[in-house]
């Protein structure tokens, strides 16, 4: 196995390859949602975490948002865009829905009153508001599904509360097929938006290595 050149272009490209060549076998065996979640947990979360703006208590130790500053800036710009017209969606038809405030995630999603009344994405809902929910859900295992066979993947974000015994949640739900479309558009974004600077940085690093070895 060849080494990863980086985790914001090379690694997610390999994740996409797995999504592509394993797609038909997974669909045949009824494991297409499992495959999508596996790929998203790595191919979405890792480059997103490494490129997103610094903030909170600890900056990402890789420093990739500085090493690939142009790509990181493009991500910052993307996060401010309306999701439905952005590079990670841009499709008129959509099964994306959300609940801004969910009181409980106990039991089956069909038992949650807020989920039954979930709303389709509005035109001004930003990419950032969507990706934060997906990232939080994937990182913390807050994943649910609805229907059998699965009609929707549900991503839950936990929000801090002043009272330890009370939790606040928000959710994003989407049909499995539309989630796979999102993943492919995410990989397109990483490849098309950041490839030039990434390749240039890698070429510079390789040139420095050759010079040091001479």
Task: Walk me through the topology.
Blueprint: H1 10-21, H2 23-28, H3 32-43, H4 45-51, H5 64-67, H6 69-79, E1 97-102, H7 113-116, E2 119-120, H8 127-140, E3 143-146, E4 152-159, E5 168-174, H9 176-213
Antiparallel strand pairs: 1-2, 1-5, 3-4, 4-5
Helix pairs in contact: 1-3, 3-9, 6-9
What does this structure look like?
Strand 4 (152-159) and strand 5 form a beta hairpin. The protein is an alpha+beta fold and 214 residues long. It contains nine helices and five strands, in the order H-H-H-H-H-H-E-H-E-H-E-E-E-H. It has one domain. Helix 3 (32-43) runs parallel beside helix 9 and helix 6 runs antiparallel to helix 9 (176-213). The longest helix has 38 residues, at 176-213. A five-stranded antiparallel β-sheet has the order 2-1-5-4-3.
């Amino acid at each position: 196995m060849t080494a990863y050149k980086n985790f914001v272009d090379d690694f997610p490209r390999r994740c996409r390859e797995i999504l592509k060549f394993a797609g038909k076998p997974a669909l045949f065996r009824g494991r297409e949602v499992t495959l999508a979640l596996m790929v998203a947990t790595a191919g979405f979360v890792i480059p997103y975490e490494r490129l997103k703006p610094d903030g909170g208590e600890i900056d990402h130790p890789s420093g990739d948002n500085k090493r690939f500053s142009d790509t990181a800036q493009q991500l910052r710009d993307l996060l401010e865009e309306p999701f439905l017209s952005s590079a990670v969606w841009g499709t008129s038809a959509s099964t994306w829905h959300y609940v801004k405030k969910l009181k409980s995630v106990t039991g089956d999603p069909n038992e949650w009153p807020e989920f039954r009344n979930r709303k389709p994405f509005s035109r001004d809902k930003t990419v950032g508001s969507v990706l934060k929910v997906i990232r939080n859900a994937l990182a913390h295992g807050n994943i649910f599904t609805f229907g059998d066979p699965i009609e929707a993947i549900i991503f839950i974000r936990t929000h801090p509360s002043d009272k330890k015994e009370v939790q606040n949640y928000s959710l994003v739900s989407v049909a499995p097929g539309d989630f796979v479309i999102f993943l492919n558009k995410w990989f397109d974004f990483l490849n098309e938006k950041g490839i030039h600077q990434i390749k240039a940085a890698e070429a510079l690093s390789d040139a420095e290595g050759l010079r040091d070895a001479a």
